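Worked Example 4.2. Consider the chain below.
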Amino acid sequence: MAVIAPRIRLAADGPEFSRIVFGLWRLAEWNLAPAARVALLEQALALGVTTVDQADIYGGYVSETLLGEALALAPGLRKRLQIVSKCGIKLVHPNRPQHRVKHYDTSGAHILASVETSLRAMHTDHLDLLLIHRPDPLMDADAVAEAFLQLQKDGKVLHFGVSNFTPAQFDLLSSRVPLVTNQVELSVLQPAALTDGSLDQAQRLRCAPMIWSALGGGQLFGDGDARVQRVRAELARVAALHAVSEAVIATAWVLQHPSRPLVLTGSGRIAAIAEAVSACAVTLAREDWFAILAASTGAEVA
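Applying the procedure from the previous section yields the following structure tokens:
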């Protein structure tokens, strides 16, 4: 029987999302016709993956439009999906010729304008979750909160969070407006979130984090250096015990953290999404979890 992605509530007053989130940052690279995009979303939904992750900048500012074309072709899909998007980064790109230098913009005016653009692009009247994409050294927490509350009052965004924020940065903004998640990087090759306070804060606040690059941005499955080979060997050993792939074990390793993380996929292959979903049913022995960590860090825990 196929594993279906379980659902999880991000926070006490937060949304309920699928534990595996369909990351669409490479949607433009997949070169799919609108009907093929619809088919891929339908296949993901059949696996219980109901949540999709976007950002205004993805695909050079076109990924949201590509999703919107699919939703326009099959309007019934929107009610079955939860859409996450992000704003706050301004790229130097031909699609934004007015940008002279890459920078961050978390001004209230930019947040409001960015959401309007995202809603139009995706043919939807609301976002289920909006994230500030990166910490902005010029962020005015009161201005961000004012924009968030206006968007919520207007029904254009239901919930808010951040991405790549330190615990202190999260605390600052959450002192002004409720936040339901912090989307951070975590993998067996990038375990810093285990010790930098991000996941400790998530547990303390009972706000489930969203995890990007859970497979190390593909580095796990290239030739790699000695460290990657060491991690691959440990993943292969544990994978053999569970009769699953190394990718499933790498994903299960992330999912096992008690902060209850949600994991973003980065592939347009339905087989890869199914692997991520199947990881939800795998529980690693504590010694195996630590053996994988030791392979990554090169040393046992102190």
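The chain has eleven helices and twelve strands. The radius of gyration is 19 Å. Compare this with Example 4.1 before moving on.
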